[in-house]
Amino acid sequence: MRSPRFILGALLAVAWMAPLRAQAQGGTIRGHVNDAAGKPLSGATVSYGSRNAQTRIDGLYVISGVPAGRDTLRARLIGYTSMARSVTLSAGQTVESDFALTASAVSLAEIVVTGYGEQRAGNITGAVTTVAAADFNPGRIVSPEELIRSKVPGVQVVDNNEPGGGFSIRIRGPTSINASSEPLFVIDGVPIGTGAGGGLSAGRNPLNFLNPNDIESVTVLRDASAAAIYGANAANGVLLIHTRKGRVGAPQFEYTGSMSASSVTRLPNMLNAAQFRAAVTQYAPNNVGQLGSANTDWFSQVDRTAFGQEHNFAVSGADASTNWRLSAGYLNQDGIIKGTTTERISLGLNLEQKLLKDRLNVQANLRGSRAKDLFTPGGVLSNAAQFGPTQPIYDASTRTGYYDWPGNSLQSADNPVALLNLASDKGITYRSLGHVRAQYALPFLEGLRANMDLGYDVTRTDRQSFFPSTLHGQLKSGNGGSDYRANQSQSNTTAETYLNYGAPLGGIPGNIDAAAGYSYGWSHAEYPYYQANGLSTDLLGGNGVTSARSVVNFQDIEESRLISVFGRVNYNVNDKYLVSASVRRDGSSRFGPTHQWGTFPSLSVGWRISEEPFMKGLGLSDLKLRGSVARTGNQAFSNYQQYSAYLLGADQSQVQFGSTFVPTIRPSAVDPDIRWEKSHSYDMGVDFGLWNQRLTGTLDVYIKTTHDLIFRVPVAAGTNLSNFVTTNIGSMKNRGLEMSLSALLIPGHQRGLSWTADFTASHNTNQLTSINPFAGAAQRIQTGGIAGGVGTLIQVLQPGVPINSFYVYQHKLGADGKPIYSTKDLDMYVDQNSDGKINNDDRIPFHDPAPKWMLSQSSYLAYHDFDMSFTLRSYLGNYVYNNVASNLGTYSEVTRGSPYNLHASVLTTGFQTPQYFSDYYVEKASFLRMDNITLAYTLKYHGQPLRIFGTVQNAFTLTGYSGVDPTAGLNGIDNNIYPRSRTFTGGFNLRF
Amino acid sequence: MNLRSFKALVFPAAVFSLGALGCTNLTVEPKSTVTEANVFLDASSYRAFMAKVYAGLAVGGQQGGDGQTDIQGIDGGFSQYIRLYWEHQELPTDEAVIAWGDDGLSGLVQDTWAVTNPFVVAMYYRVFFQVGMANEFLRQTTDAKLSGRGQTSATLKAEVATYRAEARFLRALSYWHGLDLFGPIPLVTDADALGSTPPKQATRQAIYDYVVSELNAIKGDLPAPGANSYGRATAGAANMLLAHLYLNAAVYTGTANYAGALTAAQAAIAGPYTIDASYRHLFQADNNTSPEIIFAVPEDGLKTQTYGSTNFLIHASCGGSMNAGDYGIDGCWYGLRLKPEAYNRFGPGDGRTNYFSNAGNGVAINSISNFDDGIKAPKFSNRTSTGAPGQNPGFVDTDYPMFRLGDAYLIYAEAQLRGGGGSRAQALAYVNALRQRAFGNASGNITDAQLTTDFLLDERGRELLWEGQRRMDLIRFGKFTGGTYLWAWKGGTKAGAATDTHLNLYPIPANELVANPNLTQNPGY
User: Shortest CB distance from A652 goes to which of B14, B128, B303?
Assistant: First the structure.
């Protein structure tokens, strides 16, 4: 490849030329720049006349080759008050001059680690938010994603309510339909792959391997200009996770332990035994004979108060040349539905050693974990909803000892308690992630550093489920018991080398900070599984292999490679005019041969108006206008799409040649030119700070258009090997605005009351702009499978409306405000096209699951030894399809061979046949939720702080939604979702 | 550690050597699936791929019963090639009705198809699926490709050379179908690379010329007729295809070529084929032993299972009071019956009506959806000539006879009468040979004076009833559209109504016009 060498060459040229001027003969001025407390400040700019230098990590600056004379020596660092003094220099003389800068708005000087580099917070030109540990959500946090929920504007964090449940994150809305919309996770500088949680898991969430207690901060690169340095993986935004390091001082032990109890908040509203009996009597008199005399609340049989415990232990230390932290954690959390548990054992080690007079910095970072997840075996929740409340739990006369409807009819629900106790489903995931990094400050050129980073990420999983042949569900389907085991493994290796150069420019004003490098990533994964149906015996459970009627063994190996070169230049003139440009060129094995390489550039500019003389004296500590434009990519789709696979024909589809039969092979239709989905993003923002950053805020508006979306579309006949092919076609647009405000409302002098309040608001509008640019307006793809008939789809992908909009009939309302029920569709539904019949053409897109507004308010209060925090969250304009109501809220469900229990909505609607496509079931799910509230007290224990805390998560939810949870996952379909819990956690943190 | 040397060399060297050595090779080939890169390293793959090009006619997908469908967006059985082709050539004519209400079927029966008719759409893509498979086979089997893979065995090369001719035959066959049904369509060959560049539309003349030249080029390379080549294309098949092309040349190009038709028919007749003594045997479960069949699409109850082709014809022809077991099948589908005109063409004593069943309401089709209306014509059967049932009542053994000697006789006769040369006496002899078989004696023979082209159209309707030829024949005689000849349900009315001439061609699917902006829709749609 030509480009990587070109970029490296260009960088080297810059690096070599810049210092030549500085090496001329003359006098020298040197010294240290410290803060008021004497701590060295690195990166401060010291100028004398037209000459500049930056302080090193120890605060030292050296300006050499200075002509004799008298001039002003200035030291300046963003967030500090600059200082100037007059210095006289004679030829060949060396003058020592130290500075002690006083902090003004120190938060502007905080170092924010961005991709392949770091910047002072005040100089960042992209939309970047860092959440530090102190601001993380408290309580029982199993997954790292949950730490930052509601803390960053524009970031939607969605879970599925299970303990450590699978998380999804959407930054500024979804960017893809058939590829992933999940952001890229980068842990301590190592990208861990794209897709949900960036990896493989036999449990609920691949990122659960990372103990949230080991995390120091999470930086979210929201806009594309900040993320573009990650190129073809950056379209969905990037989360940079930094793990904790040691603190300077003697070795310190830290222990945090907590216990928790969780209970169910809401359950589906089903009929009780008396109501059920009445419904069966009225609508299915033939079934009355089947009804028992029990009064069973099936949900109360499968839910529970769940307990959990967590212990984290860390020991750390640091001195001038070494920094280390070793941590161990144990977590065990039961879910509120019986049979669900997550358990994690984790270890972590961070080690940093400085060598060669601090020129070489070697870091090692290792972590490993075992996560064990127990799941409710398939269908416990749906069967608890469906099973007749008049029926008993146990029946001593059956083989299993549990009652089930007689006759093994396909039309009867399974006893959820039997399912829970007899079947099993569990997953164990071992994952280890580690990397070593060496950073070397090259001696021949001040400011030039070479970095090498080698990382690995290895996962091994074991997912196993067992359903004995005596289970009702197995009997009625004729499956005869099943045993499933998948032992998947994945190993990713990465190698990156890059150069950083940061120095003042000679001749022209300003500092330059540049980086350029090369990155190599390789992934190898194996997906074998074993599935046996029709077991000859249940005796071995899932622990052994019995002879079976049908056995399927499968193996799939997936490999991919990503090779990249990248470069970035930041140009900073007096912390006033800021420019940042980056480019990444990615080559991926997932792209077709003609599109193996993609280029992803970005440009952002900032103008800190607050530095202009005319703004002085207004109390503004910061006012910065930002603007950026960038292109990013998404390659989070499956491997090998460009390869035509030859599908082997079955024995029954052979062809006769003479008297012999010949099996066939068929090449698949592919688009050999398949390539990344690309996003173009435009962002305008303003950052402001008043009264030395006591009040800060940001405002961003953005437009993000995604092109070349991957879809399966008809192709011109004759050009490919079938009439449909997966190709890059279609586009969508997200527009929105984000706002955040943070204020120290009460400063809390002398340990009095202090109160910091953060507020975020974000608004996003998603619109699919095209599926197929050649087609007319009528095109649509139906999606969103629901319970109630195979292939029943409730959502639509249609240009002009948000993706996954609900696609429904408009239900006419009667005089009583209830939806009309009739045996004639025309009487119930609005005939949108007035053709006198109700069919698919009369369905219309109607709302969508994504929140239009996400609002949050986090407060942190302290008073003497007490501290308290809470997080309030509100979504506005999100809609949920209540599938439990639509599927079971119809009297036809009691006319089955064995009657299903009914959803209580049937008492209102009176529906006698299912009305799946009625807009009645699309409910507004706006809510206000107290996500968490914590109260803590810190006391001294043997001279060390001991913090005792209590947290309530999901303290309350106010919503008009009638189902179990208004945050019903990303797709907005509430089909027996796991109920949301309220969790009380108490614990303490101790250091010694 | 020697600090100085480290400083000077090691670290920068390490950094850059890693960068430089780090490869830029991005090719990562699949390991767990068979792909172009590895499939043809196995010599048996050439035969397997060849088999797929044939399988495109015989089954709807890669699994028994048309699973893993070849084309998307329609049921696998519905999309089976022969079933679609048969429906397009028979349902809109005076020969057949089908009772079912599947979206699009009644459009075919009543000549009211739309540009989105799912059956018409599927037929179009079926034609191009065959073309695509054949083209890809030809791309993958060039000498260069073979030697590139180290496949240098002379036996394999010879085998592949024959396969290439067969692939070209199958491509020509489907282009003929496309030319006949859809008129001007794109002409894509193995010389065009796979990809997304939409092809240009070709004229009917260009496709006609291409198919003729292909057939003449490959005739000598096709396998010889015989037991080993049953089910495969032979020179006889190529001659029959040429005969049909020439016979309809006036329709396709505006210039007749009856001499060509006569010569090609003569060449087919000269092959090792003889008239089967039993007309019924041609359509029975053991019809693979019939000496008359020149090219068949074989089906098998165990090894070649489809819900299309003869399995469709046999199941769909059965219903009402008919006994499924009489036809060797597991149940009736209550679909196909004769239109009255087809039945009324037969005179008394014609043995070709022996299998008809008049159970139900008689000849008239008052309701298309009522299976009892109309004469049943279970011409195809899953019982053998000895009465034994096929291997599997769910999937029949009966092969679909695409070209047979009786057809060649009638082509000769028609071409002779239309001035294509040859001998009129021979033409009469050929026609009477078929009639003698039909009547069991000379009682049905015609005189020289009776031998007219109109007689031949009717005779084709009798001899080749439900053999997928009727629409083509009616168009050649100018009777398919317009008002000169009306039959029940033509134009959507029971009595029959005149139709517009644009219906002589099916429309290019609406989807296809979107996917390929180079195409112009046929007139009238």
Answer: B303
